[in-house]
Amino acid sequence: MQKIRLLLLLALVQVCIVPPAFAHHVLGRPSYSLSEDSNTPPSMQVETQIGKFFVTYMVFPAFPRANEPGRVNLYATRIDSGEPYAGQVTFSVKDDSWFSSDEEILGTQPIDAGVFRQGFQFNKDGDYIITARFEADGEPYVIDFPLTIGDTASATPITVSVIVIVLFLAGINVIKRKQLLRAKIRADRTDKHA
Predict the structure, then answer these.
(1) CATH 2.60.40.1930 for domain 25-149
(2) Which pTM value belongs to this model?
(3) Exposed (0-12), middle (13-18) or buried (19+): which is 96, by Cβ within 10 Å?
(4) Residue 156 CB: number of other CB atoms within 10 A?
(5) Is the predicted pLDDT of residue 26 greater than 70, yes or no?
(6) Which tens digit of pLDDT belongs to each residue from 129-187?
(7) Are 115 and 30 in contact (CB under 8 A)?
(8) What is the CA radius of gyration of the chain?
(9) What are the strands of the beta sheet with 116-120, ordered from one edge?
(10) Contact 93, 133 (CB under 8 A)
(11) Residues 6 or more apart from 25 whose CB is under 8 A from it?
């Protein structure tokens, strides 16, 4: 009994002496990227390796809408050393459509506490492509990622095209089967009369 009391007392002292741990990440995001307009998870969080860098980008708020401010956060760290890229990143945007080539520069951002932050505000709902560009060690880096603003139609041109092609092929298949069946019936009739 004496040993159990001693162990409990020792455990209590241990718990009281341990210093508090400070969280660097909250909900999987670096705590320094939180602010009054980012209290929800990002609508997109993508991590990728490009060249000599490991890149993570996030879009805030969770559901960006037209005529409301939003922001892109980009983190770029060297794969070999883990050090953050310390230059500038230029952000641009264009419509995510087959026939759009108009690109608009959103801004060039310096690093701020290990993060490149670019604000945006779109006038209409739609699908867009955000492009982040920077240069390191004489090599250009270009990262494209999609951004959906508001509620866009679920039937994109690619989806519509695929549906049309499938229906066209199914129609041809039905027509060919009917022609084959008619030819078979004619052949059977010819064999019976001969």
Answers:
(1) yes
(2) 0.57
(3) middle
(4) 13
(5) no
(6) 889 999 998 899 999 888 888 876 555 667 777 787 878 787 788 888 888 888 888 88
(7) yes
(8) 30
(9) 44-50, 53-60, 70-78, 116-120
(10) no
(11) 31
